[in-house]
Write a structure and sequence with these properties.
The chain has a domain at 226-303. The chain is 44% helix and 23% strand. It contains 12 helices and 13 strands. α8 (228-246) runs parallel beside α10 (275-284) and α8 crosses α11. InterPro entries: Glyco_trans_2-like (IPR001173), Nucleotide-diphossugar_trans (IPR029044).
Length: 328
Amino acid sequence: MNKTISVVLPNYNGKNLLEEYLPFTFQSLVQSNALFEVIVVDDCSSDDSVAFLKKFYPEIKIIQNEKNRGFSFSCNRGIYESRYDLVLLLNSDIKLSRDYLEVLLPYFEDQSTFGVMGKMLDPSGKSIEIAAKIPRFNGFKLKTDKQAFPKDPSFGKVVTSFLSGGNCLLDRKKLVELKGFDEIYSPFYMEDLDLSIRAWKLGWKCYYEHQAVSFHLGSATTRTFFGKREIKEIYFRNRMFFHAIHLDRKDLKIWKFKLLFLEVLPKLLLGQFWILNSFTALQRKQYRIDHSRRKIRQLMMKYKGRKSIAQITSEINTFNAGKQLIRL
């Protein structure tokens, strides 16, 4: 299998991270024996990121945003500039093991594969930060906070509800067909879950490979540039966006009722008035939400996909049944 790889790496003031971890990315690319290119999308950095890359990595293609546009926009720009079979979405603070890509490439022998990610360890290498995401759906809310990994990889492949945008390898044609990340979620949170669920709805699979190892070694960019309250607002807003886009129409009214009376009002009574910003954003963005719903419906018709979130949850858990998963 002679797959080719385009690395898309969004960067914001990450010169030190690039200097430390890019060599490991190139090592993994070389060991994969794949033809490759590396694209760094610089999100209007104020440090020496671009100068560093031009001096030490002239082979890297650099795309510079004129203003700071966030993760989704930067990734999408890189995706559309890429030209190879597979796209590796990689954060600047991720260190890849030498065989990371070599282990992931065989998954793309299956035409139904959308993408695959390896495990992500903390800097010590002792604790798993990201493994397979195990979904739960109660009829009106999808939760993906449970993680697991196979006790014995020989029991077969493991699927995941979503692929982390920081270390996943994706089929470029499928990724472009989905139009990349939905930028309604900018600046961060939920965009990778949304992308993966759209892929599942079209009948494509998202895999987790425990033998491929990456390390999350770097920045707390989100907490550096956003306050705790703002991060909460964005998280809850985007969670609302996700359900408004992906729930079946018959469930939307009940979900909105529960959202208001079981989530928004209780927080207001506790003095957590920031939730109002999240909730009012849901009303203001209704046009964009409707647009996202129409786009995925059109693709589902094209690919004859009819899967609801409930059906996707069941499919993932059925596929993983009997794999002797160890829960985290």
